[in-house]
Each structure stands twice: as C-alpha cells, then as structure tokens.
Amino acid sequence: MSKLKIIATIIVKPEFKEDVFNMLQTVTDATRKEEGNISYILHEDINNSSKVIILEEWKSQEAIDFHNQTEHFLILKTELGKKADSLTIDIIRASY
C-alpha cells in the first residue's frame, strides 16, 4: 500500500491570521510526533498571506483516521470553523 498525502488549503479570516497560525504551529508539533505521520509541513502562500497550505504525508489511512480523532486536531477543526473562510482537503497518492 502506498503512502497517502494530504493537501489542506485554508483561507484564514484576516483578523484571525496570527491566532490561527499559532494554533497551526501547535498542531504541527503534536502531529509530527504521531507514529503514523511521515511529514507535516505548513506553507504560506507568498501572494496571499491569508492562505495556508499544509502538506502532509501519512503511512496509511488508519494513521489519518487516528490523527482525525486526536485532541489537537479536533480543537483545530472547531476553531477553523469560526476563523477560516474556507478549508479544502485533498487526499492523494502517487500513481506512477
């Protein structure tokens, strides 16, 4: 089974940018310690500072499912509902 990658794109409401970025740093630190996580890297769009992209790599769908139930992820998910204009998640895997 191939590794799975996630591309999460968040458009943060401008007034919450600093708060969300701090929260994302906390989640990143915790996520990187999860056994099933290979990498978890935050990116900021150079043309739109309200756009944050998280590139994630996971060992399996089970590792993603575990991550989605962690306290740090659930808190982030709740807060983003209030502080982001949009969130898109794409799960991909290499095919060639």
Automatic annotation (TrEMBL):
Please give the PROSITE patterns that the UniProt record associates with this protein: ABM
Show the InterPro entries listed in the entry.
ABM_dom, AI-2_Isomerase_LsrG, Dimeric_a/b-barrel
Q: Name one Pfam family in it.
A: ABM
Keywords, sorted A to Z: Monooxygenase, Oxidoreductase
Example GO molecular function term? monooxygenase activity
Query: Where does the record place a coiled coil?
Result: none
Q: What class of enzyme is it?
A: oxidoreductase
What's the domain of life for this entry?
A: Bacteria
Q: Which residues form the ABM domain?
A: 4-96
Q: What EC number(s) has UniProt assigned to this enzyme?
A: 1.-.-.-
Whether Metal-binding counts among this entry's keywords is no
Keyword field contains Membrane:
no
Instruction: Fetch the PANTHER family from UniProt.
Output: ABM DOMAIN-CONTAINING PROTEIN, QUINOL MONOOXYGENASE YGIN-RELATED
This chain belongs to the protein called: Quinol monooxygenase
**Organism encoding this protein:** Psychroserpens luteus
